[in-house]
Amino acid sequence: MSTTNSFLKSGNLVSMVAAFTIIAELLYLAIFGLNSVYSIVSLTLISLIFMQGIVAFIFYYTALKSILMLIDVPIGLLIEAIAIYFLFLHKFLGLELILIGYISEPIAGTVLFKYFYKTNRIYSLMFFIGAIVFTLGLPLYVFNVPYVAIIGDIVKIFGLLKLRKCI
After folding, report:
1. Transmembrane residues, as ranges (predicted)?
2. pLDDT, tens only, 133-149
């Protein structure tokens, strides 16, 4: 296995773990309501997702050396760090910043999409479309409509699982 494939496989694994952690957080908020985002359970899950995002970025960037990823992801992660700070202060601004920070996911995902598209078009599309649907579904939580983000994340997970076999 090449070094690139090794880093891609590691990034894929971290992304899958993060996606399952995201599902846990999305379900928690769907069950207990948006105000539960300030609970220790939610803050812990969000902090874990943030840390997993850093690790996944390191693996993917090391594998693909993408300038787009190098510019986009650290900005998104910085916004997420600030968002988490505000969430710990029980400020709604934290949620608003998370929505802004997550815009970087599909942007950075284009790099992975283009890389994997050569190998498997269907699963790379599932991953990418899932990430977009997930991101677009996040604001709907304000209207108590959690299903769009949850379905998007599930589609993304399925794409990631299938792409793992292509690495």
Report:
1. 12-31, 37-60, 67-88, 94-115, 122-141
2. 999 999 999 899 999 99
SS3 19: helix
Nearest 5°: CA angle at 102, between 101 and 104?
Answer: 85
Q: Is 164 in contact with 148 (CB distance < 8 Å)?
A: no
Q: Residue 136 corresponds to which tokens in the numbers above?
A: 């677009």
Amino acid at 116: F
Question: Which two structure tokens, joined as six digits, stand for 68?
Answer: 């787009």
Specify the number of domains making up the chain.
1
Q: Which two tokens stand for residue 71?
A: 């510019």
C-alpha distances out from residue 74 to 34, 48, 103, 134, Å: 27, 17, 12, 20
Range of the domain at 20: 3-164
3-state class (DSSP) for residue 82: helix
**Residue length, the chain?**
167
Structure tokens at 134: 């997930």
